[in-house]
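Hi, can you check this record?
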Amino acid sequence: MTRDNVADLLLSLSDRDRNILESLRKFRLLTTAQLRRLHFRHQEEPTDPEDGGADGKRKKGHTTEGAAAVAAMRVLGRLEARGLVARLMRRIGGVRAGSSGIVWQLGATGERFLRVVYGEQKRRRYVEPSPRFIDHTLAVADIAVRLRELERDGVLEVVGLEPEPKNWRAFLAPHGARSWLKPDLFAITASGEFEDHWFIEVDRATERPDVVMRQAQVYQRYATTGRHQAEHNLFPVVLWVVPDAKRRHTLEAALDAERGLQRDMFRVITVDDFTATVTGTATPTP
């Protein structure tokens, strides 16, 4: 794809088209429902001619979730026809989920387009990933979408939000070898004058507790370097978001039993308690 091709494509894409491509670049996989939550809210927003609005003007947005879903599929279908996005064979929730369960990634043209825009040389291969990878990637993306929704609703401000691999941190372990910290998400949220920093691990109860504890030790070794503290004057809370109370109790017991671990660095919550935790508005469920 040449620079001229990119320039022509840029002129033909709406701001929302670009934002959809950027979201897929950032989170790798997103369902139709997640894309709708990010870019097709039924509120005041810019509109495309395909959605019944005039170019460059604003209208009262989609009046229902159903209308937003229809608009989302119309736009995604248009982008798919141009090779900018592509759907996976696997659908979340099966056929019953309808279009909301379709999983999207960048298409070949979309990947080349953004690679030229950002001056990247390395070509990313887009193949059908494993079910386990899809499940985890979408679960991480859902946490990010929740944060953006909270910001849009005026509950908090998202100062920073970094998925993998942008949030990876290299550091020297005590024995001098180069080590890596690879959180699922790094987020900075703010309410009033106060900031909260979060390293977020989205746990799908697929790993043994001892594997999770090894990850906890990596976080502690990284904290010992003092790099984050030197820049921000604090170290993030390491937050494991788990599917249910049973898994929460399992990981909490493992953290309590892990020798030499700075226990107050780590918290385990269920996905249902995520909003209450990041906003500080409710007591976690027992």
Observations:
- The chain has two domains: 3-129, 135-279.
- Residues 30 and 138 are 6 Å apart (CA to CA).
